[in-house]
Automatic annotation (TrEMBL):
Any one GO molecular-function label of the UniProt entry: hydrolase activity
UniProt keyword list: Endonuclease, Hydrolase, Nuclease
Domain of life: Bacteria
Annotated spans, Disordered: 1-21
UniProt cofactor(s): a divalent metal cation
Protein source organism: Stieleria marina
UniProt biased composition (Polar residues): 1-18
Pfam families: YicC-like_C, YicC-like_N
Protein name: YicC-like family, N-terminal region
Domain spans labelled Endoribonuclease YicC-like N-terminal: 9-163
InterPro entries to which the protein is assigned, alphabetical: YicC-like_C (IPR013551), YicC-like_N (IPR013527), YicC/YloC-like (IPR005229)
Residues forming coiled coils: none
Domain Endoribonuclease YicC-like C-terminal: 182-308
Amino acid sequence: MSATTTNCVRSMTGQGHASAQGDLGTMTVEVRTVNNRGFKCSPRLSDSLASLESQVESLARSLIPRGSVHLSVNWRRPAQLSLPNIDQDVLQAYVEQLEHVRKTSRVEANIDLSSLITLPGVISSAKQNRRDDEQLWAFVASTVTAAIDNLNEMRATEGGRMADSLHADCSQIRVHLDRIGEIAPRAIDTYQQRLEAKVQRTLAQHDLSVDAVDLLREVQIYADRSDISEEITRLGSHLKMFVDVLDDSVDDAGQREPTGRKLDFVIQEMFRETNTIGSKAADSEISTNVVEIKCAIERMRELVQNLE
């Protein structure tokens, strides 16, 4: 028994349903999931299935790596298993004893079967107690797995839409990051021109002069302090990693693996580099692009919080 696998990322929110009929009766399973940092399962089983609760939770854990899971399992037995069981051996024993008493005491009286079934031991639930637990567990497990398969199909569909949105935001970030890369060198030249003009005006007002080397040294200090080339490179690297993780959500064995937490960590690093770029680069156009990148990252963060 294994739930359906898919190469697409999955949302943590969804619901699934499955029902099955067989010799043991009718089994109905409903499962609903919402986002959660880890795995949390809240199973609700029919009283007659209470002994299987831990097995149901273990099965759900193996098929749903992450999320808050609300799982309901209901079992309706076949009519013949639900009816009380008449122990014919006990009933026959009562009849034979009464026949013996009637013969020995010479009492003329009819034996009323409807009265006999009220005697101790005649009615029992022995047939229910002799259920095949292995067969019952196989019935429960197959229905729970089918419900989770339906759940995962819905979550994969929603995850696909979320992945499309994340890709669109990544493309926007790349556009703004490339623009920042184009602006950054020009920003140094602009600063140098502004500084030279300001210094020249001040010197002219006071009839002074300054060595060009000193002016260039000041420009170099500013250039070193505001250099964002490393941050641009790292943000580009994090962006590529995010897309790679988003597109490749299967392990070496070909099995789907959860990627939500990994993507969340990558987003934290992207936001850190973006903040550094904004604080180091004193340029209005760079700041505008940084704001757009932050807006895209925040949209991505909200979506990633709901990815498995």
